[in-house]
From TrEMBL, chain A:
Gene this protein is translated from: pyrC
Catalyzed reactions per annotation: (S)-dihydroorotate + H2O = N-carbamoyl-L-aspartate + H(+)
GO cellular component: cytoplasm
Record domain Dihydroorotase catalytic: where: 45-233
Record: residues binding Zn(2+) 1: 56, 58, 150, 303
Pathway membership: Pyrimidine metabolism; UMP biosynthesis via de novo pathway; (S)-dihydroorotate from bicarbonate: step 3/3
Residues involved in substrate binding: 58-60, 90, 276, 307
GO biological process terms on file: 'de novo' UMP biosynthetic process; purine nucleobase catabolic process
Protein name listed in UniProt: Dihydroorotase
Species of origin: Streptomyces purpureus
Assigned EC number: 3.5.2.3
Lineage: Bacteria, Bacillati, Actinomycetota, Actinomycetes, Kitasatosporales
Record GO terms (molecular function): allantoinase activity; dihydroorotase activity; zinc ion binding
UniProt family annotation: Belongs to the metallo-dependent hydrolases superfamily. DHOase family. Class I DHOase subfamily.
From TrEMBL, chain B:
Record has Transferase as a keyword: yes
Entry EC number(s): 2.1.3.2
UniProt keyword list: Pyrimidine biosynthesis, Transferase
Protein name from the UniProt record: Aspartate carbamoyltransferase
Membrane-spanning segments: none
Top-level EC class as recorded in UniProt: transferase
Any one of the GO BP annotations: 'de novo' UMP biosynthetic process
Gene3D superfamilies the record matches: Aspartate/ornithine carbamoyltransferase
Amino-acid positions noted as binding L-aspartate in the UniProt annotation, renumbered to this chain: 83, 176, 230
Residues that bind carbamoyl phosphate: 55-56, 105, 135, 138, 271-272
Coiled-coil boundaries: none
Record's catalysed reaction(s): carbamoyl phosphate + L-aspartate = N-carbamoyl-L-aspartate + phosphate + H(+)
Length: 428, 325
């Protein structure tokens, strides 16, 4: 493979430097590097980040290829600056066996746009009753380390306890979708002032917080680590902060949409705002931003959830829950965290690459931008301003809550092991 | 006048009073030997009912026919909807057949709002009840009934309900009637008190323009009207209250409780009543209970809504009343 010289990029938002890629690795980082024999990418004014890592993506294949495939999903990921995504297990069939996770893993390798690390189901069929063969999935070619019944909560305390204990044998982690099922029967949106007016079934914050409280205590009791998916309330932040102060091995993620949007949007009854956990209040949004800034929340994960048009072009109650997010995540983080002064670009690299790779044990991703490291890189133009146009998405689905909204920043280039997957904002 | 009627909260005080005044004009039509106006001749109104509701559907149908509209009744059961057709496709199909207005009843909160605001169809949309959200024509007919009884049929013209104390009792949480009434009564200047067990009040009710009480007996003596909301027996299976008997004892209206109300005060119910649950037969059949009047007034109100949304032109009014107070 030929050489590529990225010239004048602010590495992790610092001083402008040149980065020379040779083959699959970074050969040198410095100033005034020679462009001889190299293709030059002029990156003046742009930010160079390690390739982003998404710990929470729904690629829908196998089973719902009408909404997304591994190929279309990884193309969307590349456009969003990602070089590694963790694919959730709620496919059809469920990724609860070595066979299914290996299939997803292989499809990811074939796509060539972004590495795909399958997540294995915690329980057979996501039913919360019987542990799936977690060890077999770990030992498979896919090398699964993250297990989740996402979409459903592992609500049985004994099953959760056993799963937390069992995966210690191979350094795994359980990622919990925290949702007490009885408290959220018929839930349609955040329970509060807006739901009372709209007459939509409430999804109370306590349904999330009570499960997180239980699970951090379980993790402490059995000495395991636990990861909390898409944390969405101010109360959840307080519980995780308390757990960390006690030394409990808990990590947590927040989605871009929970950093920006509130339940006031549901007043339009437009199901593009229907998501699980639901959009919360302004107070929650501010608490989540603060928690991401101070490290209580470790990472940003997209919960990219593609759905076909007809599943959103209907009345609220009939609509599917979820939003696509891979192609807008970095822009939302820039708007809510960077442009507000809450995070530096170096901290963005931590929250969106280093930390998620560490939690998910993703080898070769989330590495420093320095000589000898794999050339998984993302180049961002932070000065860009533009309205979100879903027609330009690489994802097969268009269910974005940001249509027409002006967001800052644009991924101009993504490199996966030295190969450009995105050039000038377009798929290579 | 607005283009659609989706929520009682969308009405201004003047719009609401105009609707009530227009309904009084319409009520006069009902007193004539021939109860029909030519206002909507040649126009087609579709009653699109995704949820069973014989009384609301018949009320709208009577109103439409008295205004000489052509009426199409579409019930979701046994239709293409039960075969999986979407709300959007159903509505577009109807509009393609030349429907001039859609009256919609749907079990999903927000379905009429979506129909009116998604660019699916152009026709005016009238909400005939959506999920646990809104039922604006019910609130209007209730306000109409209150104004007639508490202010007077003629004295009420041009007036709102300023200073009246209205009490709503029962399952507020699951009630679109309660939401619509709170919004409209507030707009009309009334003081609203909600009485219910805390389990049947929504989280967030403290932001509504209404007082909340858990004690019916203390509220009755200062109420000008008491509206009993239907309480479904099945609710006790979800632990909203322990037993039917306990509910009736604490929140039901019987003769003894009714005696605590001021003499002029009325008892209302949107129907259908669950006798023995929220209301005893003695109260339901008393002169103070306006249930049957409410039904009659419903037709007048729905005529007024259709007339103002579709007829539009003041000069076509049966007895034009241009002066607004």
């Amino acid at each position: 493979m030929s050489k590529i010289l990225i010239r004048g990029a602010k590495v992790l938002g610092g001083d402008a430097q040149d980065v020379l890629i040779d083959g699959e690795t970074i050969e040198a980082v410095g100033t005034g590097l020679s462009a001889e024999g190299a293709q030059v990418v002029d990156a003046e004014g742009q930010i160079l980040l390690p390739g982003l890592v998404d710990l929470h993506t729904h690629l829908r294949e196998p089973g719902r290829e009408d909404s997304e495939t591994v190929l279309t999903g990884t193309r969307a990921a590349a456009k969003g600056g990602y070089t590694s995504v963790f694919a959730m297990a709620n496919t059809f069939p469920v990724a609860d066996t070595a066979g299914v996770v290996e299939q997803v893993y292989r499809l990811g390798r074939q796509s060539g746009y972004c590495d795909v690390q399958p997540i294995g189901a915690v329980t057979v069929g996501l039913e919360g009753k019987k542990l799936a063969e977690l060890g077999a999935m770990h030992d498979s070619a896919a090398g699964v380390t993250v297990f989740s019944d996402d979409g459903k909560c592992v609500d049985d305390a004994v099953i959760m306890r056993r799963a937390l204990e069992y995966v210690k044998a191979f350094g795994g982690v359980v990622a919990q979708h925290a949702q007490e099922p009885r408290l959220t029967e018929g839930a349609q949106m955040n329970e509060g002032i807006v739901s009372a007016e709209l007459g939509l079934g409430g999804w109370p914050a306590v349904a999330e917080e009570s499960i997180i409280a239980r699970d951090v205590l379980l993790a402490e009791h059995v000495g395991s680590r636990v990861h909390i998916c898409h944390l969405s309330t101010a109360g959840s932040v307080e519980i995780v902060r308390w757990a960390k102060s006690r030394g409990i091995d808990v990590t947590a993620e927040v989605t871009p949409h929970h950093l920006l949007l509130t339940d006031e949007l549901v007043r339009t009854y437009n199901p593009v705002y229907k998501v699980n956990p639901p959009l919360r209040t302004e107070r929650d949004v501010m608490a989540l931003r603060e928690a991401l800034a101070d490290g209580t929340i470790d990472i940003v994960a997209t919960d990219h959830a593609p759905h076909p048009h007809e599943d959103k072009d209907c009345e609220w109650a009939a609509a599917a829950m979820g939003m696509v997010g891979l192609e807008t995540a970095l822009s939302v983080v820039q708007q809510t965290m960077v442009d507000t002064g809450l995070l530096t670009w170096a901290e963005v690299a931590d929250r969106m690459s280093f930390a998620p790779a560490r939690i998910g044990r993703a080898t070769g991703h989330g590495r420093p931008v320095s000589a000898g490291e794999p050339a998984n890189l993302t180049l961002v133009d932070p000065a860009y301003r533009g309205a979100v146009d879903p027609a330009g998405f690489a994802s097969r689905s268009r269910n974005t809550p940001y249509e027409g909204r002006e967001l800052p920043g644009r991924v101009t280039h993504t490199f996966l092991r030295g190969r450009a997957t995105v050039v000038d904002g377009n798929l290579a | 006048m607005m283009r659609h009627l989706i929520s009682a909260a969308d009405l201004t005080r003047d719009e609401a009073v105009l609707l009530l005044d227009t309904a009084e004009e319409m009520a006069r039509v009902a007193d004539r030997p021939i109860k029909k106006l030519p206002t909507l001749r040649g126009r087609t109104v579709c009653n699109l009912f995704f949820e069973d509701s014989t009384r609301t559907r018949i009320s709208f149908e009577a109103a439409e026919k008295r205004l000489s509209a052509d009426v199409i009744n579409f019930a979701a059961k046994g239709s293409s909807v039960s075969k999986g057709e979407s709300l959007k496709d159903t509505a577009q199909t109807l509009e393609a057949m030349g429907v001039d207005a859609v009256v919609i009843r749907h079990s999903a909160s927000g379905a009429p709002y979506r129909l009116a605001n998604s660019g699916w169809i152009d026709a005016p949309v009238i909400n005939a009840g959506d999920g646990t959200h809104q039922h604006p024509t019910q609130a209007l007919l209730d306000a109409f009934t209150m104004r007639r009884r508490l202010v007077g049929r003629d004295a009420g013209l041009g007036q709102d309900l300023a200073g009246k104390h209205i009490t709503l009792v029962g399952d507020v949480l699951h009630s679109r009637v309660a939401r619509s009434n709170v919004d409209l009564l507030h707009t009309l200047g009334a003081q609203v008190t909600l009485v219910a067990p805390p389990t049947l009040l929504p989280v967030g009710v403290d932001h509504w323009p209404a007082d909340v009480s858990y004690d019916l007996d203390s509220v009755l003596p200062k109420s000008d009207a008491v509206m009993m909301l239907r309480v479904q027996r099945e609710r006790m299976n979800a632990a909203f209250f322990p037993t039917e008997r306990e509910y009736s004892r604490r929140y039901g209206l019987d003769g003894e409780r009714m005696a605590k109300m001021p003499e002029h005060a009325i008892v209302m119910h949107p129907g259908p009543m669950v006798r023995g649950m929220e209301i005893t037969a003695e109260v339901a059949d008393s002169d103070r209970c306006t249930v049957v009047e409410q039904v009659a007034n419903g037709v007048s109100i729905r005529m007024a809504v259709l007339y103002l949304l579709l007829g539009g032109n003041e000069s076509d009014a049966p007895n034009p009343r241009t002066e607004e107070k």
